[in-house]
């Protein structure tokens, strides 16, 4: 007989991305992450719809960001259009349980950027086109 369970539902897959240089992270943040997702180049992309935990390692930060993500499209997955090996990968969307959690993440990243690059540069980088 099963009684109540304390197990919380969570994505079974965990992915790690480590940025070696802070500027590389800032570039990806301004181009992709700040818009809600990013592209991960990999020889083994997951199928569209797959949910996972995304560990985002960034220099100058003691612990990685841990974000929920979902694969929105993939190149090089079985049944998908074939691509060259260097072009395999997947587009992911970050899934924040609440607007507050999204804001905490963006505020922390933008604070790191301002401390490293200065307000003027960050304002230009994050300005809407």
List the main descriptive attributes of the protein structure presented here:
Thrombin, subunit H; 5-stranded mixed sheet; alpha+beta; globular; 5 strands
Form type: globular
CATH domain fold name: Thrombin, subunit H
Measured by DSSP, the beta-strand proportion falls in: 25-35%
Q: Can you tell me the residue ranges where pLDDT is under 50 for at least 5 consecutive residues?
A: none
What is the H level of CATH, i.e. the homologous superfamily?
A: predicted glycosyltransferase like domains
Please give the number of β-strands. Answer: 5
Average predicted local confidence, pLDDT: 84
Main-sheet strand order equals 1-3-4-5-2
Could you say what the CATH architecture is?
A: Beta Barrel
CATH class: Mainly Beta
- Structural class based on helices, strands and sheet pairing: alpha+beta
Q: Secondary-structure element order, as H and E?
A: EHEEEEHH
Largest sheet: 5 strands, mixed
Number of helices: 3
Distance N to C terminus: 59 Å
Radius of gyration: 17 Å
Oligomeric state of the chains present here: single chain
Number of individual domains: 1
Question: Helical content, roughly?
Answer: 25-40%
């Amino acid at each position: 007989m099963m009684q109540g369970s304390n197990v919380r539902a969570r994505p079974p897959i965990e992915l790690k991305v480590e940025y070696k240089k802070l500027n590389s992270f800032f570039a990806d943040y301004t181009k992709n992450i700040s818009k809600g997702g990013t592209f991960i180049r990999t020889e083994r992309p997951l199928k569209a719809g797959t949910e996972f935990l995304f560990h985002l390692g960034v220099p100058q930060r003691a612990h990685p960001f841990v974000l929920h993500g979902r694969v929105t499209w993939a190149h090089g997955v079985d049944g998908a259009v074939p691509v060259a090996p260097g072009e395999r990968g997947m587009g992911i969307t970050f899934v924040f349980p609440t607007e507050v959690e999204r804001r905490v993440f963006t505020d922390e990243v933008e604070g790191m950027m301002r401390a490293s690059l200065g307000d003027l540069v960050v304002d230009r980088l994050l300005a809407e086109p």
